Amino acid sequence: MEEKKPTRQEALELLHRYNESDSLRKHAYAVEGVMRFIGRKRGGDEETWGIIGLIHDLDYEKFADQHCQKTGEILREHGWPEEYIRAAVSHGWGICSDVAPETELEKVLYAIDELTGLVATTALIRPSKSVMDVQVKSVKNKWKDKRFAAGVDRSIIEKGAQMLGVGLDELIDDTIKGMQEVAEAIGLKGNPS
Ligand SMILES: [Fe+2]
Ligand SMILES: [Fe+2]
C-alpha cells in the first residue's frame, strides 16, 4: 500500500504552528526554494523536495536542545512517511542526529542548509539588499572571512558538496537561483530600481 504523501499545505500548517519567528519561517522558505530548484534540475519530485525543505527545522524554535529528534516525533505523530522524516533528520548529521545523508535529496539538503544563510547575508550587504544581485563570486569572497555570517559553518557546506560530487561554484549558483525564485517570500527582493 502506498503511503499518503503530505501536501505543501500540511507542511505549511505545521511550520506556522511550530515556528512563530519570522526569520525561521524565512529560512524554511529559502531552503524550500533551493530544494525545489535543485530537485527539478536533478529530475526529482519537486514537491517532495520542497516540502522536506519547509519542515527540516520544524522543532528548532520550541525544542532547540532536542533539534532533529523532536521533528521526527512531531512528523510521526502526524503520520508522515518515514522517507520524509529520515530526510529531515539527516540535515543535522554529526550535530544533532546520527542519520547520515544517503539519498541525493538528503545530500542536497545537508549541503545547502547553511549556504542559504551565507547567501542571505551576502544579499543584505548589497546596496539593493536583494538576492537578485548576488553573484557566485560575492559569496566566494566571503568564504574565508570568518567574522562574516559567523554562524555559517563553511566546512559543512564543503562536506556536502563533496558528498554530492559537485563543485562549490555550482552549488552556490544553484542556491542563489533557488533563493531568487522565492525572493519575495524571504524578504530579499530588495527595492525595485
Ligand atoms: Fe537545523
Ligand atoms: Fe536549517
Fold and architecture overview:
The protein contains nine helices and no strands. It is mainly α and 193 residues long. Bound molecules: fe (ii) ion (2 copies).
Describe this structure in a few short sentences:
With 193 residues, the chain is mainly alpha-helical.
The run of helices and strands is HHHHHHHHH
| Range of helix content | 55-70%
Secondary-structure-derived class = mainly alpha
Number of helices: 9
Spatial shape: globular
Average pLDDT score: 96
C-alpha termini separation? 53 Å
Strand content is under 5%
- Please compute the radius of gyration using only Cα atoms: 16 Å
Main sheet makeup: none
Highlighted features:
single chain; 193 residues; mainly alpha; binds fe (ii) ion
Topology, please?
Blueprint: H1 8-18, H2 22-41, H3 46-55, H4 69-77, H5 82-90, H6 104-124, H7 136-141, H8 154-164, H9 168-181
Helix pairs in contact: 1-3, 2-3, 2-6, 2-9, 3-5, 4-5, 5-6, 6-8, 6-9
